[in-house]
Design goal:
This protein is of the alpha/beta class and about 475 residues long. It contains 17 helices and 22 strands. α4 runs parallel beside α6, α4 runs parallel beside α7 and α16 runs parallel beside α17. The longest helix is centred in the N-terminal third of the chain and has 14 residues. The radius of gyration is 24 Å and the shape is globular.
Length: about 475
């Protein structure tokens, strides 16, 4: 947790001190006035439904000592500032995001001893971040992104909530548009970084997978060359998956010009960190032999999905690079609990098992989840059922990609598929029918409310059900309904 005076905040961010004492101190950052307490820095963001500027006085009343406004300060707040109770700032250009990024960059610069891991990719960022944190915790005091708090507000908030006593930071970086990861990585300056994969998430904003790869490669902009160890004593490195179609592109077009070493992970001999003989058990958990640096170790991951093997290998690559023991790090990941709503197996009231992967979706993660559904052991008399919600942010590629998902699902040994959503769900259902999937084994719902009225009554005690779709579809509500 930082300790800045109001003057130090303005120096770091180019904000203007509107009123109040320059020497008043703040030590934590909040955006919700209900979370403000004595010594808080409250940043007033204008939101779609709620304007944080309207709650600046409430934050000050709760004890916040510095208020960063993106709008006009109310008279009551200015009066409190003139009494010396609070410092009121105005963010440069009314830009609260830039204010936070600059402040976070200043706090990062004040803590060069931190060993920082930058995590990005189209799918699997949060799970990989959690694996990295667990692995590094075997040696260091670790601070990591909470949940998927990984955007232009969440990432700097992660840095600002770290303390000088923390030793390793694991920072997740997401994006919707070109340039966002560039801004994030320049603030957090990773010692090492990884890219889980280059998929089709946000292709509607970026236009092509190559543009997505370019956006992910922006993570290198905050890193120094491998020829010069960082202040924390780490040799910079970028970890990539050798099976990803854009690994060579990122390596040759971005990592090599930046002078950053690339470490490959995967199943081939070219990989420095390898998984041999990958198999899924009856619960869909992958088992394999981990090979790296002379180590050969049988490993079983606690989460269903073959796709998570490469995420584990990436976590091992960066953790060992930062000095963790490979065996201890692997054991720590094996002991992890599954993240809520990410391939979490829960039991329905009727006895059916539900694979809750309702948090979010992309075409590749949808296929991986279907693989898990079909790999898990099915009790006698049970059925495999997939409830698939449409995927957002695919732009002009949406119909094509949803058709591929529908065709992929139709090729699986499923007993029932329910498609939830609008036109994109129609594309999935139509493709499944074209591929020969029987129409009497397809259910079609316009929204989750319609699905909730029907699906719970269809489930039997021995069924195995997958719930997977974009967060906006709300399939987590269906999962809660059947429990």
């Amino acid at each position: 947790m930082f300790d800045f005076t109001a003057q130090q905040v303005t120096d770091a961010t180019s904000a203007t001190l509107v009123a109040g004492p320059a020497d008043i101190v703040c030590h934590d950052c909040v955006f919700d006035s209900r979370l403000a307490q004595a010594g808080s820095l409250f940043v007033a963001f204008p939101g779609e439904f709620v304007d944080g500027n309207d709650y600046a006085e409430a934050a000050a009343a709760a004890g916040a000592t510095v208020i960063a406004m993106t709008g006009t300060a109310p008279e009551g707040l200015l009066e409190a500032a003139h009494r010396g109770e609070v410092a009121v700032l105005h963010c440069d250009g009314d830009d609260g995001e830039e204010f936070l990024l600059r402040l976070a960059a200043s706090w990062r610069a004040a803590n060069p001893q931190w060993k920082v891991v930058g995590v990005t990719g189209s799918v699997g960022k949060t799970t990989t971040k959690d694996m990295c944190a667990a692995a590094l915790a075997t040696r260091y005091r670790v601070h990591a992104t909470s949940g998927n708090f990984n955007n232009l507000i969440g990432m700097p908030a992660t840095l600002l909530s770290a303390s000088a006593e923390d030793e390793a930071l694991v920072v997740e970086m997401g994006m919707n548009h070109t340039g966002e990861i560039s801004r994030l990585t320049r603030a957090c300056r990773p010692d090492v970084a990884l890219v889980t994969n280059v998929g089709t998430s946000h292709i509607g904003f970026l236009g092509s997978q190559e543009n997505i790869a370019r956006a992910k490669a922006e993570i290198l902009e905050g890193m120094g060359p491998s020829s010069r160890p960082t202040a924390s004593g780490v040799t910079p490195m970028l970890a990539l998956v050798d099976g990803d179609g854009f690994t060579d592109f990122i390596s040759t077009q971005f990592a090599e010009p930046a002078g950053v070493d690339v470490m490959l992970v995967g199943g081939s001999d070219a990989a420095a960190v390898r998984a041999r003989d990958v198999e899924l058990d009856a619960q869909g958990h992958p088992s394999f032999t981990l090979e790296m640096d002379g180590l050969s170790r049988p490993t079983t991951l606690p989460v269903a999905s073959r796709q998570l093997v490469s995420d584990f290998l990436l976590a091992m690559a960066v953790s060992v690079r930062l000095g963790a023991d490979a065996g201890e790090a692997a054991a720590a990941v094996e002991a992890m609990k599954p993240t809520h709503m990410r391939l979490e197996v829960v039991e329905a009231a009727c006895g059916a098992r539900v694979i809750d992967d309702s948090y979010n979706a992309s075409p590749s993660s949808m296929a991986a989840a279907l693989d898990v559904l079909c790999a898990m052991e099915l009790p006698e008399g049970g059925r495999r059922i997939a409830v698939l919600g449409q995927i957002g942010e695919l732009g002009a590629s949406a119909a094509h990609l949803h058709s591929l998902i529908g065709a992929y699902a139709a090729a699986k040994p499923l007993d029932l598929i329910a498609f939830v959503g609008g036109e994109d769900a129609d594309s999935m259902a139509a493709a499944a029918r074209i591929m020969g999937f029987s129409d009497d084994k397809i259910e079609r719902f316009d929204d989750v409310e319609a699905a909730i009225k029907v699906i719970p009554q269809l489930l039997g005690p021995h069924d195995l059900v997958l719930a997977k779709g974009s967060r906006s579809v709300g399939l987590d509500r269906l999962v809660q309904e059947v429990r």
